[in-house]
């Protein structure tokens, strides 16, 4: 697949990023981040999600219960030892999974996600925008974007296990993923976008860079309400490690929401 391409000037190197102060993903910062103006735009290629296309990232799901701990095909990571002694076999990965609803909605140019599966109040996120921060509006009448593409200002990964999303109703959606092999040194060019057809879901391997799930405005409108709802299943510990594209690289990732 082609690499993501910056539509403006080159983004900073990882060495330059390491010199910048880290963005702290508090509840307030996640819900209403103070994003800078004049961010560079990096276009992320979109392809249809198939098992071949998702190789290394995860799998397409044909049912919500296709991958579970009980079936022994849902990956939970054994927690690493702090010292030189190894964790005993058969422990350290017993927390299993938690599951619940993941709701997404547009408010003008702002796209929000709410993860009701996790036991934290830091579970409501600004998952993306329909326009650059300096022109984005929460008013549908004055919003600058059409909701057919989304600008991502951050992504994250889970250190304790896999995660899956399956829509409650039949409709397409999009995810943006980066390889777990990147670890903390992920960069915008590592990210790929996948269009999941109606009636399918998606499963990510542990450590895969992602964020929420993205649904075009017109798709949500066709559902007859103001939001789309998914089942999400993930590691119960919910260890989350996040990167701010806006703060660390001075950019946003532009992801189409339709093929």
TrEMBL record:
Instruction: Report the record's Gene Ontology biological process terms.
Output: allantoin catabolic process; purine nucleobase metabolic process
Q: Which UniProt keywords apply?
A: Lyase, Purine metabolism
Q: Which residues form a coiled coil?
A: none
UniProt GO molecular function: ureidoglycolate hydrolase activity; ureidoglycolate lyase activity
What SUPFAM superfamilies does its record include? RmlC-like cupins
Q: What is this enzyme's catalytic activity, as reactions?
A: (S)-ureidoglycolate = urea + glyoxylate
Q: Which Pfam families match?
A: Ureidogly_lyase (PF04115)
Question: Subunit info?
Answer: Homodimer.
Write down what this protein is called.
Ureidoglycolate hydrolase
Record the organism: Aureococcus anophagefferens (Harmful bloom alga)
């Amino acid at each position: 697949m082609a690499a993501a391409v910056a539509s403006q000037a080159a983004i900073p190197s990882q060495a330059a990023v390491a010199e910048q102060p880290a963005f702290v993903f508090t509840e307030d910062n996640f819900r209403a981040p103070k994003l800078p103006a004049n961010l560079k735009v990096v276009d992320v290629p979109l392809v249809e999600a198939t098992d071949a296309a998702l190789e290394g990232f995860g799998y397409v799901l044909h049912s919500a219960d296709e991958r579970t701990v009980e079936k022994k095909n849902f990956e939970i990571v054994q927690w690493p030892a702090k010292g030189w002694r190894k964790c005993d076999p058969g422990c350290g990965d017993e927390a299993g999974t938690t599951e619940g609803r993941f709701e997404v909605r547009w408010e003008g140019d702002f796209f929000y996600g709410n993860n009701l599966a996790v036991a934290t109040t830091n579970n409501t996120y600004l998952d993306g925008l329909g326009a650059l921060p300096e022109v984005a509006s929460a008013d549908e009448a004055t919003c600058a974007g059409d909701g057919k593409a989304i600008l991502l200002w951050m992504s994250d990964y889970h250190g304790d296990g896999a995660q899956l999303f399956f829509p409650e109703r039949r409709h397409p959606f999009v995810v943006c993923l980066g390889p777990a092999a990147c670890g903390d040194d992920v960069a915008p060019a590592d990210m790929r976008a996948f269009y999941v057809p109606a009636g399918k879901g998606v499963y990510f391997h542990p450590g895969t860079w992602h964020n929420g799930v993205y649904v075009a405005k017109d798709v949500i409108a066709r559902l007859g309400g103001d939001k789309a709802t998914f089942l999400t299943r993930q590691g119960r510990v919910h260890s989350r490690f996040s990167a701010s594209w806006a703060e660390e690289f001075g950019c946003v990732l532009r992801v189409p929401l339709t093929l």
